[in-house]
Amino acid sequence: MNLIEAPSPNFDARTAPPSVLVLHYTGMKTGEEAIARLRDPEARVSAHYVVEEDGRVFRLVPEERRAWHAGVSFWRGRRGVNADSIGIEIVNPGHEWGYRAFPEAQVAAVIELVADIRSRWTIEDRDIVGHADVAPARKEDPGELFPWKRLAEAGHGLWAEAPAAPGAPIGEGEEGAAVFALQAGLTRLGYDLPPSGVFDADTAAVVRAFQRHWRQGRVDGVADGETRARLIALLRLAG
Fold first, then answer.
1. Would the pTM of this model clear 0.85, i.e. be above it?
2. Which of 89, 140, 144, 174 is catalytic?
3. Beta strands in 18-83, from DSSP E residues, in sequence order
């Protein structure tokens, strides 16, 4: 790949080889502003790569080093996923500054970059996730406009189309076996959601994160029939 070197001092030693790929949006007004922050030693944040809207790809931290992109996070039993992940920041103003669709040149560059990274490291499809997936109570990125389906069709990540499922929606405040089963399924997929049988605020946050990734037409934290059907289909794919 044609990479633009923009080294950041914000990294340290890895404790495990990369096995997770975390996609973010920058959530700042411009790409230049985001790159400057990711290279600022006082900010103490970074990512391995930044992908601009025009398709340019900047390398900030070597893959062999731990970048500081995910913060307090969890995926599939791992806490602090910075230790064994690669972080890609995708330039987009985000929900705070005018969230918008990701341009074609940018999406194509992300797909190429992901393929390039996976040629060097063993990263399973189920471990290609968003910042919202690993930190659902804090983060929304890369959000419901990111084309996860397109990425999966290119061979990277999980995607499942599920038939319309008319089951009654499950929402915050509800309790029972259906809530327990939902929480168990989300935990099995990778989220930090120990089943309790109580649909609380943490459960709603995880459902919203799931919807931003896999049920993008409805992002409200309510587990309607289609949300649950997609979860079941994804679990079958994940094995």
1. yes
2. 89
3. 20-25, 49-51, 57-59, 65-67, 74-75, 78-79
